[in-house]
Design brief:
Helix content is about 40%, strand content about 20%. It has eight helices and twelve strands. Strands 2-1-3-4-5 form a five-stranded parallel sheet, sandwiched between helices. A four-stranded antiparallel sheet has the order 6-7-8-9, covered by helices on one side. A three-stranded antiparallel sheet has the order 10-12-11. The two termini are about 30 Å apart. The relative contact order is 0.11. The model has no long low-confidence stretch (mean pLDDT about 85).
Length: about 230
C-alpha cells in the first residue's frame, strides 16, 4: 500500500486468529491492534481510530452483529466480517448491518489482504491518505485538516472532533455520540466539554455565524461540509 501506515483492528475471541492476523498484517506494514470481543473493541476504536475493522461474529459479551451495528456511531472505518457462519442469511444480515465485506473461515491470508486493499482504495483512491469533503481536506497520515486549502492549527482533541464531524458530514450528531467518540467510554468529566470544544473549533474555522457547525437545538450539532 505504497508504504502508507494504515491501521487495522482485529476483533476475534480466538487468540490464535488474533495472533496470526496481527503478525501477518504487521509484516505487511499495517499498524494493528486486537480485541477479544465487541465490548473491548468499542473501547479501543475511539482511541486507535482504525481504517479497517476485521470482526468475527460469534463472540462472547458482545457478538459481531451487535458490534457491526454500533461501529458507525463512533467510526467511519470499513468493516470486514471474518467468520465461520457461511449461510446466505448470515451474509445478508452482516451486510445489512453495515459490513462492507464478508469472508468465511477457513480463509487464505492473501485473500484477506486483497479485500483490505479494496476497502482502503475505495476510501483513499490515490493512496495518499487524503480525503476531500466539501471545502475540507483530511490527511489522516499527517493528522491535518485544511479548510479551503489552508491547514488548520488544531489540538489533538480538536482534530479528533473535527474528523468525527467530517466522517459524518451533513448529519446531526448528538452530544452523547460526540462524547463517546472523542472522549471515550471512560470519560467522567463534565459534558459541557462538548460545547467548549465546539466553540474552539468555530473560532479556528472563522465560523462566527455558525454556518459551518450548526447547533440543532435539542438534537446536537451538524457540520455543513459543502
Amino acid at each position: 500500500m505504497s508504504g502508507i501506515r494504515f491501521k487495522i483492528l482485529v476483533v476475534d475471541d480466538d487468540i490464535s486468529i488474533r495472533q496470526m492476523l496481527s503478525l501477518g498484517l504487521r509484516q505487511e506494514g499495517y499498524e494493528v491492534q486486537t480485541a477479544e470481543n465487541g465490548e473491548a473493541a468499542l473501547k479501543i476504536i475511539p482511541v486507535f481510530e482504525p481504517h479497517v475493522i476485521i470482526l468475527d461474529i460469534m463472540m462472547p459479551v458482545m457478538d459481531g452483529y451487535e458490534l457491526c451495528e454500533a461501529i458507525p456511531e463512533i467510526s467511519g472505518a470499513s468493516m470486514i466480517m471474518l467468520t465461520a457462519k457461511d449461510t446466505s442469511k448470515d451474509i445478508v444480515k452482516g451486510l445489512k448491518l453495515g459490513a462492507n465485506d464478508y469472508l468465511v473461515k477457513p480463509f487464505h491470508f492473501e485473500e484477506l489482504l486483497a479485500r483490505i486493499e479494496v476497502q482502503l482504495r475505495s476510501r483513499f483512491p490515490d493512496l495518499s491518505g487524503q480525503r476531500r469533503i466539501g471545502r475540507f481536506t483530511m490527511d489522516e497520515m499527517k493528522k491535518t485538516i485544511s479548510l479551503d486549502d489552508h491547514v488548520l492549527h488544531l489540538s489533538p482533541t480538536e482534530y479528533k472532533l473535527l474528523s468525527y464531524f467530517l466522517w459524518n458530514a451533513n448529519q446531526t450528531l448528538s452530544k452523547e455520540k460526540i462524547l463517546l467518540h472523542v472522549w471515550g467510554y471512560d470519560f467522567d468529566g463534565e459534558d459541557n466539554i462538548v460545547e467548549v470544544y465546539i466553540r474552539y473549533l468555530r473560532e479556528k474555522l472563522g465560523d462566527s455565524d455558525h454556518d459551518l457547525i450548526t447547533t440543532m437545538r435539542g438534537l446536537g450539532y451538524r457540520l455543513q461540509a459543502e
